[in-house]
Amino acid sequence: MDFTLSEEQKYIVQTAKDFAENEIAPSSVERDIKSDFPDEIIKKLGELGFMGMMVSPDWGGAGMDTISYTLAMEEISKVDASVGVIMSVNNSLVCYGLEKWGTDKQKEKYLKPLASGEKLGAFCLSEPEAGSDATNQNTTAVRDGDYYILNGMKNWITNGTKADYYIMIAATDKSIGYKGISAFIVESNSEGVEKGKKEDKLGIRSSDTCSIGLNNVRVPKENLLGAEGNGFRIAMETLDGGRIGIASQALGIAQASLEASVKYSHERKAFDAPIANLQAIQFKLAEMATKIDAARLLVHRAAKMKDEHLKYSKAAAEAKLFASKIAVECALEAIQIHGGYGYVREYLVERYLRDAKITEIYEGTSEIQKLVIARDLLK
Ligand code: CAA
After folding, report:
1. Binding-site residues, ligand 1, Cβ < 6 A
2. For residue 327, what are the CA distances in angstroms to 111, 150, 332, 360, 368?
3. What are 151-170's pLDDT values in tens digits?
Protein backbone atom coordinates (compact mmCIF):
# COMPACT_ATOMS: atom_id res chain seq x y z
CA MET A 1 0.00 0.00 0.00
CA ASP A 2 1.27 3.46 -0.88
CA PHE A 3 0.90 5.85 2.03
CA THR A 4 2.39 8.90 0.30
CA LEU A 5 0.07 11.85 0.86
CA SER A 6 -1.36 13.60 -2.20
CA GLU A 7 -1.07 17.40 -2.54
CA GLU A 8 -4.74 17.66 -1.54
CA GLN A 9 -4.18 15.52 1.57
CA LYS A 10 -1.17 17.66 2.56
CA TYR A 11 -3.36 20.72 2.16
CA ILE A 12 -5.98 19.15 4.47
CA VAL A 13 -3.31 18.52 7.12
CA GLN A 14 -2.11 22.13 6.95
CA THR A 15 -5.65 23.53 7.00
CA ALA A 16 -6.62 21.38 10.00
CA LYS A 17 -3.38 22.21 11.83
CA ASP A 18 -3.78 25.98 11.28
CA PHE A 19 -7.43 25.89 12.31
CA ALA A 20 -6.69 23.81 15.42
CA GLU A 21 -3.85 26.08 16.56
CA ASN A 22 -5.57 29.39 15.80
CA GLU A 23 -9.22 28.70 16.51
CA ILE A 24 -9.38 25.72 18.89
CA ALA A 25 -6.30 25.87 21.12
CA PRO A 26 -6.92 29.30 22.70
CA SER A 27 -10.14 28.19 24.43
CA SER A 28 -9.45 24.48 24.99
CA VAL A 29 -8.25 24.67 28.62
CA GLU A 30 -11.18 26.82 29.73
CA ARG A 31 -13.73 24.70 27.87
CA ASP A 32 -12.31 21.57 29.52
CA ILE A 33 -12.57 23.13 32.98
CA LYS A 34 -16.07 24.52 32.45
CA SER A 35 -17.37 21.66 30.28
CA ASP A 36 -18.35 24.22 27.64
CA PHE A 37 -19.47 23.06 24.21
CA PRO A 38 -17.49 24.66 21.34
CA ASP A 39 -20.52 26.02 19.40
CA GLU A 40 -18.60 28.64 17.38
CA ILE A 41 -15.75 26.26 16.57
CA ILE A 42 -18.16 23.61 15.25
CA LYS A 43 -19.87 26.21 13.09
CA LYS A 44 -16.49 27.20 11.61
CA LEU A 45 -15.51 23.55 11.11
CA GLY A 46 -18.68 23.23 9.05
CA GLU A 47 -17.66 26.22 6.91
CA LEU A 48 -14.29 24.51 6.32
CA GLY A 49 -16.10 21.39 5.05
CA PHE A 50 -14.97 19.28 8.01
CA MET A 51 -18.41 18.22 9.26
CA GLY A 52 -19.30 16.21 6.14
CA MET A 53 -15.85 15.49 4.80
CA MET A 54 -16.63 12.25 2.94
CA VAL A 55 -20.13 13.22 1.77
CA SER A 56 -20.58 13.91 -1.93
CA PRO A 57 -20.74 17.62 -2.87
CA ASP A 58 -24.18 16.79 -4.38
CA TRP A 59 -25.37 16.46 -0.78
CA GLY A 60 -23.51 19.37 0.74
CA GLY A 61 -20.29 17.53 1.65
CA ALA A 62 -16.64 18.01 0.79
CA GLY A 63 -16.32 14.79 -1.25
CA MET A 64 -12.97 13.80 0.27
CA ASP A 65 -11.55 10.34 0.90
CA THR A 66 -11.31 8.57 4.26
CA ILE A 67 -7.54 9.15 4.55
CA SER A 68 -8.16 12.91 4.38
CA TYR A 69 -10.74 12.49 7.12
CA THR A 70 -8.29 10.60 9.37
CA LEU A 71 -5.64 13.27 8.76
CA ALA A 72 -8.01 16.08 9.72
CA MET A 73 -9.29 14.13 12.73
CA GLU A 74 -5.74 13.57 13.96
CA GLU A 75 -4.78 17.25 13.69
CA ILE A 76 -7.98 18.48 15.34
CA SER A 77 -7.80 15.87 18.13
CA LYS A 78 -4.13 16.65 18.74
CA VAL A 79 -5.23 20.03 19.97
CA ASP A 80 -8.63 19.15 21.41
CA ALA A 81 -10.07 15.62 21.48
CA SER A 82 -13.49 16.97 22.51
CA VAL A 83 -13.79 18.82 19.21
CA GLY A 84 -12.51 15.63 17.55
CA VAL A 85 -15.33 13.45 18.83
CA ILE A 86 -18.04 15.97 17.93
CA MET A 87 -16.65 16.06 14.39
CA SER A 88 -16.24 12.27 14.24
CA VAL A 89 -19.81 11.49 15.29
CA ASN A 90 -21.30 13.90 12.76
CA ASN A 91 -19.09 12.61 9.93
CA SER A 92 -18.92 8.86 10.51
CA LEU A 93 -21.93 7.96 12.60
CA VAL A 94 -24.52 10.28 11.11
CA CYS A 95 -23.65 11.56 7.61
CA TYR A 96 -22.28 8.19 6.49
CA GLY A 97 -25.49 6.29 7.20
CA LEU A 98 -27.71 8.96 5.70
CA GLU A 99 -25.71 9.01 2.48
CA LYS A 100 -25.55 5.22 2.24
CA TRP A 101 -29.11 4.25 3.18
CA GLY A 102 -31.11 7.50 2.94
CA THR A 103 -33.67 8.24 0.25
CA ASP A 104 -33.10 11.32 -1.91
CA LYS A 105 -35.82 13.07 0.09
CA GLN A 106 -34.06 12.22 3.39
CA LYS A 107 -30.72 13.35 2.00
CA GLU A 108 -32.17 16.64 0.80
CA LYS A 109 -33.85 17.34 4.13
CA TYR A 110 -31.33 15.95 6.62
CA LEU A 111 -27.98 15.11 5.04
CA LYS A 112 -27.43 18.43 3.27
CA PRO A 113 -27.63 20.60 6.41
CA LEU A 114 -25.66 18.03 8.46
CA ALA A 115 -22.86 17.72 5.91
CA SER A 116 -22.52 21.47 5.53
CA GLY A 117 -22.36 21.89 9.31
CA GLU A 118 -25.54 23.95 9.47
CA LYS A 119 -27.07 21.22 11.67
CA LEU A 120 -25.52 18.71 14.07
CA GLY A 121 -26.24 15.00 14.37
CA ALA A 122 -26.02 12.23 16.99
CA PHE A 123 -26.15 8.44 16.83
CA CYS A 124 -28.37 6.70 19.34
CA LEU A 125 -27.65 2.99 19.78
CA SER A 126 -26.57 2.45 23.41
CA GLU A 127 -29.12 1.96 26.17
CA PRO A 128 -28.88 1.33 29.93
CA GLU A 129 -28.92 -2.43 29.16
CA ALA A 130 -27.53 -2.40 25.63
CA GLY A 131 -23.89 -1.25 25.56
CA SER A 132 -21.56 -3.94 24.24
CA ASP A 133 -24.63 -6.18 23.87
CA ALA A 134 -26.07 -3.88 21.24
CA THR A 135 -28.75 -6.28 19.97
CA ASN A 136 -30.56 -6.09 23.33
CA GLN A 137 -32.60 -3.04 22.25
CA ASN A 138 -35.44 -2.15 24.60
CA THR A 139 -36.42 0.99 22.70
CA THR A 140 -39.49 0.13 20.65
CA ALA A 141 -40.95 1.56 17.45
CA VAL A 142 -44.57 0.56 16.81
CA ARG A 143 -46.25 1.33 13.50
CA ASP A 144 -49.38 3.49 13.79
CA GLY A 145 -50.74 4.47 10.36
CA ASP A 146 -48.28 6.85 8.71
CA TYR A 147 -46.14 7.04 11.86
CA TYR A 148 -43.97 4.95 14.14
CA ILE A 149 -44.38 5.57 17.88
CA LEU A 150 -41.03 5.40 19.67
CA ASN A 151 -40.57 4.68 23.38
CA GLY A 152 -37.42 3.96 25.37
CA MET A 153 -34.19 5.33 26.74
CA LYS A 154 -30.83 5.92 25.06
CA ASN A 155 -27.56 6.39 26.95
CA TRP A 156 -24.15 7.99 26.43
CA ILE A 157 -25.21 9.97 23.39
CA THR A 158 -22.39 12.17 22.10
CA ASN A 159 -23.79 15.53 20.83
CA GLY A 160 -27.03 14.51 22.61
CA THR A 161 -28.23 17.86 23.94
CA LYS A 162 -26.90 19.84 20.96
CA ALA A 163 -27.91 17.65 18.02
CA ASP A 164 -30.71 18.67 15.68
CA TYR A 165 -31.17 15.18 14.26
CA TYR A 166 -30.66 11.70 15.69
CA ILE A 167 -30.05 8.39 13.96
CA MET A 168 -32.18 6.34 16.34
CA ILE A 169 -31.99 2.55 16.60
CA ALA A 170 -35.12 0.80 17.90
CA ALA A 171 -36.83 -2.58 17.89
CA THR A 172 -39.76 -2.82 15.46
CA ASP A 173 -40.18 -6.50 16.36
CA LYS A 174 -38.47 -7.66 19.53
CA SER A 175 -39.51 -11.30 19.04
CA ILE A 176 -36.99 -11.82 16.19
CA GLY A 177 -33.90 -10.33 17.88
CA TYR A 178 -31.53 -8.25 15.78
CA LYS A 179 -33.58 -8.98 12.65
CA GLY A 180 -36.34 -6.88 14.20
CA ILE A 181 -34.17 -3.80 14.77
CA SER A 182 -34.67 -0.71 12.57
CA ALA A 183 -33.08 2.73 12.16
CA PHE A 184 -34.94 6.04 12.14
CA ILE A 185 -34.20 9.71 11.65
CA VAL A 186 -35.64 11.59 14.62
CA GLU A 187 -35.75 15.37 14.91
CA SER A 188 -34.51 16.29 18.37
CA ASN A 189 -37.25 18.87 18.89
CA SER A 190 -40.01 16.28 18.38
CA GLU A 191 -42.64 16.12 21.09
CA GLY A 192 -41.74 13.44 23.63
CA VAL A 193 -37.95 13.68 23.17
CA GLU A 194 -36.46 14.26 26.61
CA LYS A 195 -32.78 15.23 26.75
CA GLY A 196 -31.10 14.17 29.98
CA LYS A 197 -28.59 16.28 31.85
CA LYS A 198 -25.13 16.66 30.38
CA GLU A 199 -22.81 14.02 31.90
CA ASP A 200 -19.95 15.30 34.11
CA LYS A 201 -17.12 13.33 32.53
CA LEU A 202 -13.48 12.49 33.33
CA GLY A 203 -12.32 13.60 29.88
CA ILE A 204 -13.52 15.01 26.54
CA ARG A 205 -15.33 17.41 28.85
CA SER A 206 -16.02 20.03 26.22
CA SER A 207 -18.08 17.52 24.22
CA ASP A 208 -21.67 16.87 25.08
CA THR A 209 -22.92 13.49 26.34
CA CYS A 210 -26.40 12.76 27.71
CA SER A 211 -29.21 10.25 27.82
CA ILE A 212 -32.25 10.67 25.57
CA GLY A 213 -35.71 9.60 26.70
CA LEU A 214 -38.38 8.82 24.09
CA ASN A 215 -41.95 9.11 25.29
CA ASN A 216 -44.47 8.30 22.57
CA VAL A 217 -42.42 10.16 19.96
CA ARG A 218 -44.30 10.18 16.64
CA VAL A 219 -41.90 9.69 13.75
CA PRO A 220 -43.24 9.85 10.18
CA LYS A 221 -42.85 6.53 8.32
CA GLU A 222 -40.77 8.41 5.69
CA ASN A 223 -38.09 8.73 8.38
CA LEU A 224 -37.35 5.01 8.49
CA LEU A 225 -33.69 4.74 7.38
CA GLY A 226 -33.14 1.74 5.10
CA ALA A 227 -35.53 -1.19 5.28
CA GLU A 228 -37.45 -2.21 8.38
CA GLY A 229 -35.38 -4.88 10.19
CA ASN A 230 -32.09 -3.68 8.70
CA GLY A 231 -31.22 -1.36 11.60
CA PHE A 232 -28.68 -3.58 13.34
CA ARG A 233 -26.68 -4.10 10.17
CA ILE A 234 -26.84 -0.34 9.53
CA ALA A 235 -25.56 0.32 13.06
CA MET A 236 -22.72 -2.22 12.76
CA GLU A 237 -21.56 -1.01 9.35
CA THR A 238 -21.75 2.58 10.55
CA LEU A 239 -19.64 1.71 13.59
CA ASP A 240 -16.96 0.12 11.38
CA GLY A 241 -16.37 3.57 9.90
CA GLY A 242 -16.82 5.27 13.26
CA ARG A 243 -13.98 3.18 14.68
CA ILE A 244 -11.60 4.64 12.09
CA GLY A 245 -12.62 8.11 13.30
CA ILE A 246 -12.03 7.24 16.97
CA ALA A 247 -8.71 5.57 16.13
CA SER A 248 -7.68 8.85 14.46
CA GLN A 249 -8.79 10.78 17.53
CA ALA A 250 -6.65 8.48 19.72
CA LEU A 251 -3.73 8.96 17.35
CA GLY A 252 -4.04 12.73 17.71
CA ILE A 253 -3.90 12.46 21.51
CA ALA A 254 -0.86 10.16 21.33
CA GLN A 255 0.93 12.52 18.93
CA ALA A 256 0.16 15.49 21.20
CA SER A 257 1.63 13.54 24.14
CA LEU A 258 4.83 12.88 22.19
CA GLU A 259 5.23 16.45 20.94
CA ALA A 260 4.70 17.86 24.44
CA SER A 261 7.27 15.38 25.80
CA VAL A 262 9.92 16.24 23.18
CA LYS A 263 9.47 19.95 23.85
CA TYR A 264 9.65 19.53 27.62
CA SER A 265 12.72 17.27 27.37
CA HIS A 266 14.63 20.09 25.68
CA GLU A 267 13.46 22.71 28.18
CA ARG A 268 13.75 20.87 31.48
CA LYS A 269 17.20 20.61 33.01
CA ALA A 270 18.34 18.01 35.51
CA PHE A 271 21.87 17.09 36.56
CA ASP A 272 23.13 20.25 34.75
CA ALA A 273 21.72 19.37 31.30
CA PRO A 274 18.39 19.05 29.45
CA ILE A 275 16.65 15.79 30.34
CA ALA A 276 16.63 15.03 26.58
CA ASN A 277 20.28 13.98 27.13
CA LEU A 278 19.23 11.19 29.46
CA GLN A 279 18.78 7.74 27.98
CA ALA A 280 15.90 7.09 30.37
CA ILE A 281 13.99 9.88 28.58
CA GLN A 282 15.25 9.03 25.08
CA PHE A 283 14.02 5.45 25.38
CA LYS A 284 10.57 6.64 26.42
CA LEU A 285 10.38 9.02 23.44
CA ALA A 286 11.57 6.31 21.06
CA GLU A 287 8.94 3.85 22.31
CA MET A 288 6.20 6.46 21.98
CA ALA A 289 7.23 7.42 18.43
CA THR A 290 7.36 3.78 17.30
CA LYS A 291 3.94 2.98 18.72
CA ILE A 292 2.44 6.10 17.11
CA ASP A 293 3.92 5.26 13.70
CA ALA A 294 2.52 1.72 13.94
CA ALA A 295 -0.92 3.03 14.97
CA ARG A 296 -0.92 5.54 12.09
CA LEU A 297 -0.16 2.77 9.60
CA LEU A 298 -3.09 0.72 10.94
CA VAL A 299 -5.42 3.74 10.78
CA HIS A 300 -4.41 4.64 7.22
CA ARG A 301 -4.66 1.03 6.09
CA ALA A 302 -8.22 0.77 7.42
CA ALA A 303 -9.12 4.09 5.76
CA LYS A 304 -7.63 2.99 2.45
CA MET A 305 -9.50 -0.33 2.59
CA LYS A 306 -12.75 1.56 3.19
CA ASP A 307 -12.04 3.86 0.24
CA GLU A 308 -11.27 0.84 -1.94
CA HIS A 309 -14.58 -0.77 -0.90
CA LEU A 310 -12.80 -3.76 0.66
CA LYS A 311 -14.19 -5.43 3.79
CA TYR A 312 -12.60 -3.41 6.56
CA SER A 313 -14.38 -4.34 9.85
CA LYS A 314 -11.31 -6.21 11.18
CA ALA A 315 -8.87 -3.54 9.98
CA ALA A 316 -10.96 -0.81 11.66
CA ALA A 317 -11.19 -2.83 14.89
CA GLU A 318 -7.41 -3.39 14.89
CA ALA A 319 -6.78 0.31 14.27
CA LYS A 320 -9.08 1.36 17.12
CA LEU A 321 -7.83 -1.32 19.52
CA PHE A 322 -4.19 -0.40 18.99
CA ALA A 323 -4.48 3.38 18.63
CA SER A 324 -6.61 3.71 21.78
CA LYS A 325 -4.20 1.51 23.77
CA ILE A 326 -1.14 3.48 22.73
CA ALA A 327 -2.94 6.81 23.31
CA VAL A 328 -3.35 5.89 26.99
CA GLU A 329 0.24 4.60 27.17
CA CYS A 330 1.71 7.70 25.50
CA ALA A 331 -0.30 10.05 27.71
CA LEU A 332 0.91 8.18 30.80
CA GLU A 333 4.52 8.37 29.62
CA ALA A 334 4.12 12.07 28.87
CA ILE A 335 3.04 12.62 32.47
CA GLN A 336 6.00 10.59 33.71
CA ILE A 337 8.43 12.64 31.60
CA HIS A 338 6.90 15.88 32.91
CA GLY A 339 7.15 14.64 36.53
CA GLY A 340 5.13 16.76 38.96
CA TYR A 341 4.38 19.28 36.20
CA GLY A 342 2.62 16.54 34.28
CA TYR A 343 0.18 16.12 37.12
CA VAL A 344 -1.15 19.68 37.01
CA ARG A 345 -3.31 21.40 34.41
CA GLU A 346 -0.68 23.89 33.25
CA TYR A 347 1.11 21.41 30.97
CA LEU A 348 -1.95 19.82 29.30
CA VAL A 349 -0.63 16.25 29.45
CA GLU A 350 -2.94 15.37 32.34
CA ARG A 351 -5.85 16.20 30.00
CA TYR A 352 -4.40 13.95 27.31
CA LEU A 353 -4.66 11.02 29.73
CA ARG A 354 -8.24 11.92 30.73
CA ASP A 355 -9.21 12.32 27.06
CA ALA A 356 -7.40 9.17 25.91
CA LYS A 357 -9.23 6.78 28.24
CA ILE A 358 -12.61 7.10 26.54
CA THR A 359 -11.16 5.92 23.21
CA GLU A 360 -10.84 2.45 24.78
CA ILE A 361 -14.53 2.54 25.69
CA TYR A 362 -16.82 4.26 23.17
CA GLU A 363 -17.79 3.04 19.70
CA GLY A 364 -17.02 -0.45 20.99
CA THR A 365 -14.77 -1.21 23.96
CA SER A 366 -11.32 -2.72 23.40
CA GLU A 367 -12.83 -6.06 24.40
CA ILE A 368 -15.44 -5.72 21.62
CA GLN A 369 -12.70 -4.86 19.09
CA LYS A 370 -10.87 -8.06 20.10
CA LEU A 371 -14.10 -10.01 19.64
CA VAL A 372 -14.61 -8.56 16.14
CA ILE A 373 -10.99 -9.37 15.22
CA ALA A 374 -11.12 -12.91 16.68
CA ARG A 375 -14.44 -13.73 14.99
CA ASP A 376 -12.95 -12.71 11.65
CA LEU A 377 -9.89 -14.89 12.28
CA LEU A 378 -11.92 -17.91 13.31
CA LYS A 379 -14.76 -17.83 10.77
N1 CAA B 1 -21.22 -5.10 9.23
C2 CAA B 1 -22.37 -5.63 8.72
N3 CAA B 1 -23.11 -6.52 9.40
C4 CAA B 1 -22.66 -6.92 10.60
C5 CAA B 1 -21.48 -6.42 11.17
C6 CAA B 1 -20.75 -5.46 10.43
N7 CAA B 1 -19.63 -4.94 10.91
N8 CAA B 1 -21.32 -6.98 12.39
C9 CAA B 1 -22.34 -7.83 12.57
N10 CAA B 1 -23.15 -7.77 11.49
C11 CAA B 1 -24.36 -8.57 11.25
C12 CAA B 1 -24.02 -10.07 11.28
O13 CAA B 1 -23.57 -10.50 10.02
C14 CAA B 1 -25.34 -10.69 11.66
O15 CAA B 1 -26.22 -10.72 10.56
P16 CAA B 1 -26.49 -12.10 9.72
O17 CAA B 1 -26.95 -13.11 10.73
O18 CAA B 1 -27.52 -11.70 8.74
O19 CAA B 1 -25.18 -12.46 9.11
C20 CAA B 1 -25.93 -9.64 12.61
O21 CAA B 1 -25.28 -8.41 12.33
C22 CAA B 1 -25.72 -10.00 14.07
O23 CAA B 1 -24.33 -10.09 14.29
P24 CAA B 1 -23.68 -10.90 15.49
O25 CAA B 1 -24.30 -12.27 15.55
O26 CAA B 1 -22.21 -10.82 15.33
O27 CAA B 1 -24.24 -10.09 16.74
P28 CAA B 1 -23.78 -10.07 18.25
O29 CAA B 1 -24.95 -9.92 19.11
O30 CAA B 1 -22.87 -11.22 18.52
O31 CAA B 1 -22.99 -8.66 18.38
C32 CAA B 1 -21.05 -7.27 18.43
C33 CAA B 1 -21.85 -8.37 17.69
C34 CAA B 1 -19.78 -7.13 17.63
C35 CAA B 1 -20.73 -7.68 19.86
C36 CAA B 1 -21.88 -5.97 18.40
O37 CAA B 1 -23.01 -6.06 19.22
C38 CAA B 1 -21.06 -4.75 18.79
O39 CAA B 1 -20.31 -4.20 17.97
N40 CAA B 1 -21.23 -4.27 20.06
C41 CAA B 1 -20.63 -3.00 20.46
C42 CAA B 1 -21.57 -1.88 20.15
C43 CAA B 1 -20.85 -0.55 20.12
O44 CAA B 1 -19.83 -0.39 19.49
N45 CAA B 1 -21.48 0.41 20.79
C46 CAA B 1 -20.97 1.75 20.78
C47 CAA B 1 -22.14 2.69 20.70
S48 CAA B 1 -21.92 4.12 19.77
C49 CAA B 1 -21.18 5.20 20.83
O50 CAA B 1 -20.18 4.91 21.39
C51 CAA B 1 -21.90 6.46 21.06
C52 CAA B 1 -21.27 7.72 20.70
O53 CAA B 1 -22.02 8.67 20.65
C54 CAA B 1 -19.81 7.89 20.40
Report:
1. 89, 123, 125-126, 132, 134-135, 156-158, 178, 232-233, 236-237, 239-240, 313, 362-364, 368, 371-372
2. 32, 38, 9, 9, 18
3. 999 999 999 999 999 999 99
